[in-house]
Design brief:
8-stranded mixed sheet, 13 helices, Rossmann fold, 363 residues, alpha/beta, 4-stranded mixed sheet, N-(1-d-carboxylethyl)-l-norvaline Dehydrogenase, domain 2, 2 domains, 18% strand
């Protein structure tokens, strides 16, 4: 690689900062990180990173930090990485957010985010740019502004979009560029300086990996948010697992199967995969998933791509998903409360309201 890759990072929380650190220390990339709520702290003190991979790092900064999206006239970016929360129900949309920094036909867009069908809005907005879909299995949290706790190894799986299973529906030349861009980025991430430290690989079947992770994320994550309950307690009070978590997992697996996505491998059975997902967290951890943390803090939750899209795919394919439907309806109610608190909506009837007016007494 004759020149360092120019990388723009959107989402400098836990996962994003660990990604930026690995790329910078690898020596093959120059990262511009967009900071929001942590901008002032990082500008003054840098990041403190307590990392299982890299050790304890103080006063670290990427090559460049900003609190605004740069314009492509200022710098041509080879890659834009999005590790921020994906909330398409909250404006502005992520594709519209990054428009100023995208150089058509050049900038590769990497989505390291949860959920399914996250790539389609980017493909529609940027039809000539390579799209790379990524799934992170890293555990990294910004416990306070500028302080990152990274307590599970940096593991990421990446693959070009459109996926190989449906390449015939896309542009062949663009698909080849996306494949090359994926390999180039993986090489930079896995540079000799990071040898045996990070685990970033090409994934030949990203949809299966996404859906496999979704088995957990579409069940434990939202149910924890609804109940305000950590994973340990959900497992102790077994009816939560038996009557809520496992049914949601089964529905997610059924929708994936209807799509032709295999999340249960040949040497596994469905219930075994579900049991593995139920027990994947240490029982003594009292872990609160991200949605639970968000609802407790009054933040927006990632409900559409984690629960809404599986539900809509199930409806389209005729797969019954009653548990996911109920979960989604409750999550939307919680989300609209946050929207109201932040002034996005008002509790007012309009001409389209179906439940305005007063009926006769039920007595």
């Amino acid at each position: 690689m004759s020149q360092k890759l120019k990388v723009l990072l959107i989402g400098s929380g836990g996962i994003g900062t660990v990604t930026a650190y690995a790329l910078e220390t690898g020596g093959l990339a120059e990262v511009t990180a967009i900071l929001r709520s942590n901008y002032a702290v990082v500008e003054k003190n840098g990041f403190t990173i307590d990392s299982v991979d890299h050790g304890y790092i103080q006063s670290w900064r990427p090559s460049h930090t900003r609190n605004t999206i740069p314009n492509k006239e200022e710098k041509t970016f080879d890659y834009i990485i999005l590790t921020t929360k994906n909330t398409p129900d909250i404006p502005p949309s992520l594709p519209s957010l990054i428009v100023p920094a995208v150089t058509p036909s050049h900038t590769s867009i990497i989505l390291i985010q949860n959920g399914i069908n996250i790539e389609h809005p980017f493909r529609e907005r940027f039809p000539t740019n390579p799209i790379i879909s990524g799934v992170s299995f890293t555990s990294a949290t910004e416990v306070e502004p500028g302080f990152i706790r990274h307590d599970d190894r940096d593991r990421v799986r990446l693959g070009p979009f459109p996926y190989s299973r449906n390449r015939n529906s896309g542009n062949g030349e663009l698909s080849e560029r996306a494949t090359t861009a994926t390999q180039t980025f993986i090489t930079a991430y896995n540079s000799p300086n990071n040898h045996n430290i990070v685990d970033v690989q090409h994934d030949p079947d990203v949809p299966a990996t996404r859906w496999r992770k979704l088995i957990y994320n579409a069940s434990f994550n939202p149910i924890s948010a609804i109940l305000r309950m950590d994973i340990t307690r959900m497992r102790v009070y077994e009816h939560v697992i038996d009557e809520l978590v496992k049914p949601a997992m089964r529905e997610a697996i059924a929708v994936a199967g209807a799509l032709g996505v295999r999340v249960v491998n040949g040497d596994e059975d469905e219930e075994g995969v579900i049991e593995q997902a139920v027990r994947c967290d240490p029982p003594e951890a009292f872990f609160r998933p991200s949605m639970c943390q968000d609802v407790e803090k009054g933040n927006y939750m990632e409900i559409e791509n984690i629960v809404g899209e599986p539900l809509r795919e199930g409806e389209r394919l005729g797969v019954s998903t009653p548990t996911l439907r109920t979960i989604y309806a409750i999550l939307k109610g919680l989300q609209v409360k946050v929207k109201e608190e932040r002034g996005l909506v008002k509790p007012e009837f309009d001409e389209k309201s179906r439940y305005a007016g007063k009926s006769e007494s039920m007595a």
